Amino acid sequence: MNNSYDAIILGGGPSGATAAVLLAQAGWRVAIVEKARFPRRKVCGEFISGTTWPLLRQLGVADALMEIAGPVVHRVGVYAGDAMVTAQLASSTDHAEYGGRALGREHLDTLLLKRAAEAGAEVWQPYTLSAFVENNNGYECAIIDKSTREERALHSRLIIAAHGSWESGTIPTQDLRRPPRASDLFGFKAHFHNSTLPADMMPLLAFRGGYGGMVHTDGGRVSLSCCIRRDQLEQCRQRSPKVKAGAAIFAHIESSCKGVALALSSARLDGAWLSSGPLRTGIRTFGRDGIFTVGNAAAEAHPIVAEGISMAIQSSTLLCEQLIARFDVRSDLAYSNQVLEGILHDYAFSWRDNFSRRMRMAALFAHLFMRPVSTRIVTGLLERFPLLLTEGARWSGKAEPLRGARYFDVARL
Which of 18, 21, 99, 346 sits most deeply, having the most CB atoms within 10 A of its CB? Predict the structure, then answer.
């Protein structure tokens, strides 16, 4: 077996699988190293913006995903206290089938990774990176099978880091764990059957010490995902000591949001609550020396704007545009430091042009809606001027096509 590649991608989630499909389609030799077995459930808002569905069509998975995804979201809202404000969601395209909709990561990740393998990428799963060494020709990566403990050595000219934002590891893009802080955010998610939430509605949930969202997803279910501060989580557990953390947080949300209590009054929990964290929001790094980052490895927005999946897929598209357009994988001259630095510079510029405002708006919304006083002020404004809610969704990126993606002309789709 030839274990030499043009690119090794660390992580087989949406960002990693997207990069693998695009590079493999362009003739690159690609390996994906994914530590988990699929299908897998993950803490995630599950919403995919309308601006991302044209990219999924170019990847060859849109039809399969649309068959199982939830209904198109046409309205957004805010549920805070007794207030239930709703407004229309601005459309990002004239094509109705490209409206934003949601589906579970167990389906999205599995189909995207399968498509990467079909495109020619070699998938190492469940493997994890145990060591890597830089040399004159790229990187030597040692990987180990998490089930059998079998070890392999892979060589690559480039590495694309598509791992999670809060995971520790052996490469420079993986942050070491930080000391606990009261402001740390933890993510929780659950699915419900028999909800009365309107099919086209995606409300933001505002409550003390956290925020969340609900949306119709696959299988006739409603997904409720939320983030909550460490100190507020401890208070929830103290108030409800006889139940698990997810149930304690749900009780806190129901008591804080009339809209949630109404929508889920007769609903039935589907499976267990999932949890993850702490989240590490903000911009980290775009890479260095032939290592590039995409998805949450590059940056993570506050999940309040439900743009995590879209940013992961879109950031990989931006990077792969640069790599495909400027690399001749058959030539060693393509891998000069000057070329690598130019690609990194242009990728970072394009990333910031597309996502910086989204990051700022997410941080602003998160801090406003985690505090009761500011929540009441903002909710009062939205009740008087619902159009502000429409514009807020637009500012978060839900109606803006990907800019700078010349290789993938999504504007004309």
Answer: 18
Measured over the CA atoms of residue 14, residue 20, residue 21 and residue 26, the dihedral's sign is positive
pLDDT of residue 124: 96
Tell me the sheet residues that pair with 282: 300
The predicted pLDDT at position 176 comes to 62
Please name which of 147, 137, 109 lies closest in space to residue 32, comparing C-alpha atoms: 109
- pLDDT at position 165, please? 72
Q: Residue 168 phi/psi, 5° resolution?
A: -85, 155
CA atoms within 13 A on the CB side of 263: 27
Q: Which residues contact 135 (CB under 8 A, 6 or more apart)?
A: none
Which H or E element spans position 231? helix 230-239
Burial class (CB in 10 A: 0-12, 13-18, 19+), 268: exposed
Are 259 and 141 a contacting pair, CB within 8 Å?
Answer: no
- DSSP calls for 159-220: EEE---SS---SSTTSPPPPPP-TT-EEEEEEEEES--S-TTEEEEEEETTEEEEEEE-GGG
Task: For the chain, give the number of residues.
Answer: 413
Sort 9 into a burial class: Cβ within 10 Å, 0-12 / 13-18 / 19+: buried
CA distance 53 to 57: 6
3-state SS class at 20: helix
Distance separating alpha carbons of residues 120 and 389, to the nearest angstrom: 43
Strands (DSSP E) found in 89-150:
101-102, 122-124, 127-135, 138-145
Distance CA 231, CA 331 (A): 54
Q: List, for the chain, all residue ranges whose pLDDT scores fall below the cut of 50.
A: 407-413
